[in-house]
């Protein structure tokens, strides 16, 4: 198991290593509040920020996009990153998160039974008391144990209309079928594979795309904006998780 906090020193990989038997102190579970000023200049406490546990398995491009929006975009004042977690200790996204000052944690999933592994992950994440678990390229199918622990609070982004394509390789599917348009879907996670209630969808214009790389580039450009926008609307209570909320068609860039 690997875990870092912003106060720890890092080795060359940006992480510190702990054995499974090591007991780490849990971070404060108190949500941060933003101080605002009333009409007379008096201090007023704004609503607590939503605490995000961001899960990834690779380089973490969506995590970095979300972190940017937390610092200076649509999630500023609404959310904070409580922890960035990976099932791959050497995932490139972990040192990137540590460089931004975020707590990181990892538990290697390789060779582990799914239910046993997820129970350990749940226990680790609960130390950070997240309001939402945000999947950002987390390449694991979650067990019922995990989903029930954070029921209604696990968010995923899928690069296709989940009614048309579930699972991996969604951009390959769009390219192989020469689709003129695909969709980015943000949804709540249930016990099926990409079957949870849709929060919002954004179309991606694929007309003129001449390679899989171009399809992926256009899709990721939308993902990186749309995920944060949808999370902000969810935190503000603007999104019932039932009917897809369309966004304006994203033109090729």
From TrEMBL:
- Keywords for this protein: Purine biosynthesis, Transferase
Q: Which ranges carry the Formyl transferase N-terminal domain?
A: 51-230
> Coiled-coil regions in this chain?
none
- Which parts of the sequence are annotated with region: Disordered? 1-46
Q: Where is the composition biased (Basic and acidic residues)?
A: 1-10
Q: Which positions in this protein are listed as binding (6R)-10-formyltetrahydrofolate?
A: 114, 139-142, 156
Q: Name one GO cellular component term.
A: cytoplasm
Which reaction does this enzyme catalyse, per its entry?
N(1)-(5-phospho-beta-D-ribosyl)glycinamide + (6R)-10-formyltetrahydrofolate = N(2)-formyl-N(1)-(5-phospho-beta-D-ribosyl)glycinamide + (6S)-5,6,7,8-tetrahydrofolate + H(+)
Role noted for this protein: Catalyzes the transfer of a formyl group from 10-formyltetrahydrofolate to 5-phospho-ribosyl-glycinamide (GAR), producing 5-phospho-ribosyl-N-formylglycinamide (FGAR) and tetrahydrofolate.
The alphabetized list of GO BP terms reads:
'de novo' IMP biosynthetic process
Protein name, per record: Phosphoribosylglycinamide formyltransferase
Which positions are catalytic residues?
A: 158
Q: Which family does it belong to?
A: Belongs to the GART family.
Matching NCBIfam families, A to Z?
A: PurN
């Amino acid at each position: 198991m690997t875990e870092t906090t912003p106060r720890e020193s890092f080795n060359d990989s940006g992480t510190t290593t702990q054995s499974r038997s090591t007991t780490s102190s849990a971070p404060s579970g108190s949500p941060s509040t933003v101080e605002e000023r009333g009409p007379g200049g008096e201090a007023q406490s704004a609503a607590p920020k939503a605490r995000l546990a961001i899960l990834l398995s690779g380089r973490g491009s969506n995590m970095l996009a979300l972190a940017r929006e937390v610092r200076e975009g649509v999630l500023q004042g609404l959310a904070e990153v409580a922890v960035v977690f990976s099932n791959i200790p050497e995932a490139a996204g972990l040192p990137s998160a540590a460089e931004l000052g975020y707590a990181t944690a990892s538990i290697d999933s390789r060779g582990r039974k799914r239910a046993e592994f997820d129970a350990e992950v749940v226990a680790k994440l609960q130390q950070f008391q997240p309001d939402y678990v945000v999947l950002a390229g987390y390449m694991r199918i979650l067990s019922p144990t995990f989903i029930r622990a954070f029921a209604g609070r696990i968010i995923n982004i899928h690069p296709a209309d989940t009614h048309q394509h579930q699972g991996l390789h969604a951009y390959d599917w769009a390219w192989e079928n020469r689709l003129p348009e695909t969709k980015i879907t943000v949804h709540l996670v249930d016990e099926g594979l990409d079957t949870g209630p849709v929060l919002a969808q954004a179309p991606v214009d694929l007309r003129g795309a001449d390679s899989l790389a171009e399809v992926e580039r256009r899709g990721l450009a939308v993902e990186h904006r749309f995920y944060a926008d949808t999370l902000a609307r969810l935190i503000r209570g603007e999104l019932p998780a039932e009917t897809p909320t369309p966004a304006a068609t994203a033109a090729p860039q």
